[in-house]
Amino acid sequence: MNEDQNVEYKSEFTNKLKREIVSFLNTNGGTIYLGVDDKTHNPLAVSESQKHEWEEKLNHWYMNAFYPTPFSLIDILPNEKVFTIKVRPGRHVPYAIDSEGYTSKGVYIRYGSSAVKATNEQIKRMLQQNSDNNEFDSEMSVNQNLNFSELKKRSSLKNVSFSIKALHMLKESSIYNNAAFLVSDENDIITKVAIYQGTNVMVFKDKREIKGALTSQIDELLYFISLNNHTKIKIDGAPQRHETKDYPEAAVREAVVNAFAHRDYLLHSTIKVEIFDDRMEILSPGGIPDGLSLEEITDGMTAVRNPQLVHILDKLKYIENYGTGIRRMYNAYDGTDKKPIFEVRPNSFKVTLPNLNWSNSTVSNMTNSSLETNEDLIVEFLKQNGSQSKKEIQQNLNMSNYNIRKSLNILINQGIIKRTGKSVKTRYLITRHNLK
Fold first, then answer.
1. Alpha helices in 148-234 (DSSP H)
2. Which residue has the higher pLDDT, 345 or 178?
3. With contact defined as beta carbons under 8 Å apart, do 280 and 247 qualify?
4. Would the CA dihedral through 55, 74, 65, 307 be positive or negative?
5. Residue 335 pLDDT > 80, yes or no?
């Protein structure tokens, strides 16, 4: 094929590639073949390491080099016979090179087989045509009296310069958009979290509502989950003990941040997190936008409902690698026999994370080989070390005073261990018939 309005050949990776991408975004889309002689159209010798470097740079550009961010519009295909970049026509033209803005140096359109600078009149016309994009987070906030003390704390913590303009929090000059409202101290949308006893909703152990700036809600929710994400420690004679969290922290973080980033804020519902003995469920209002399927999202295609909000979360380092959330959740369960489950409905998206330390045995049916996590740990420790005081058990197993007392009483009542001595001389040991 020859170069035309939809095809471009590039022999090298240079900053000029940004112009080609922007020109395709602002017209009818197109395909860029990288590592090809632009005269003969013959592929050039490109090493795998070079391809990897190009892919890394393009992924960085994807989130940082263009404005607005071209979510779901650029596909990077390094494993094709020729390194390929597919660009779809943008929905919110004009797109610009971010460092240049809406100027003739920043906005390009495709004219024949070339990327050419857009005139000021063309830029103005595109802006007028795109004045109503129907995205909630881009629209003007009803509340314009906004404060950002929590957001500024996050910016300082992550060493990010706080700039309302750079964070895309304005619809027009000095007019806040809804993304600004969501991350402001005045945000009135709440998040609900509950912990249940057992595997159903019959008995509450704890529940709460989280309020405030959306970034603070993410932080508070992750902290609350971490307090209830227990660690199972296995002692098997190896130099180091084996520790397994109920839920992989990477999977929890991805599921929570994605729930906030992609929920439909026009639906009068809330994000809900429910923790059962065997699983954690994260429910977010709104299905997958842009008509994409779960399979396409899993393969790395990107769909975004709140581009300005995603931009803020990315800049404040809540999002590590955009477009890989579901794959990262799957990867967090590698090496186990359990996997996360995703359920897509027209008005909701639910992630179920299985508890890695859960077995079908219940407290009422405990056996010597099937005990609760803390009890199992105490039994193994006493088998290996013989008679121990409560303080020695607590220090070696790093348990709280409450959990030690509770677990010791359970084991004593079941006859698995016994208590000897009194007061400061009290010690605990395995009963003789449980020594095996």
1. 149-157, 178-182, 214-227
2. 178
3. yes
4. negative
5. yes
- pLDDT category at 364 given cuts 50, 70, 90 is very low
pLDDT in tens, 380-425: 888 888 889 888 888 777 777 878 888 898 888 888 899 998 888 8
**Per-residue pLDDT for 363 more than 50?**
no
Using the Cα atoms of residue 155, residue 156, residue 157 and residue 159 in order, give the sign of their dihedral. positive
Instruction: With a cut of 70, say whether residue 36 has pLDDT above it.
Output: yes
Structural contact between residues 87 and 305, judged by C-beta atoms closer than 8 angstroms = no
Extended beta strands in 376-431, E state: 417-420, 427-430
DSSP string for 284-341: EES--GGG--HHHHHTT----S-HHHHHHHHHTTS-SSTT-HHHHHHHHTTTSS---E
Mean pLDDT for the chain? 86
Q: Which token pair is 105? A: 């140096």
Hey, what are 226's tokens?
């971490």
Using CA atoms, how far apart are residues 417 and 410, in angstroms rounded to an integer? 9
pTM summary value: 0.60
Residue burial 27-54, b: 16+ Cβ < 10 Å; e: rest: bebbbbbbbbeeeeeeeeebeeeeeeeb
**Sign of the C-alpha dihedral, residues 14, 311, 51, 11?**
negative
Cα(116)–Cα(120) distance, integer angstroms: 13
Section 240-260 average pLDDT:
89
Residues 6+ apart with CB under 8 A from 191: 209, 210, 211, 217, 221, 270, 271, 272, 273
Which pairs count as long-range contacts for 362-370, CB under 8 Å and 24+ apart, including other chains?
A: 366/414, 368/416, 368/434
Pairwise CA distance, residues 259 & 265, whole Å: 11
Average pLDDT over residues 273-289: 92
The span from the CA of 292 to the CA of 71, in Å, is 13
- Count other Cβ atoms within 10 Å, centred on residue 122: 16
Cβ neighbours of 262 (radius 10 Å): 22
Task: Work out the burial of residue 186: count CB atoms within 10 Å of its CB; fewer than 13 is exposed, 13-18 middle, 19 or more buried.
Answer: middle
> How does strand 74-77 pair with strand 83-87?
antiparallel
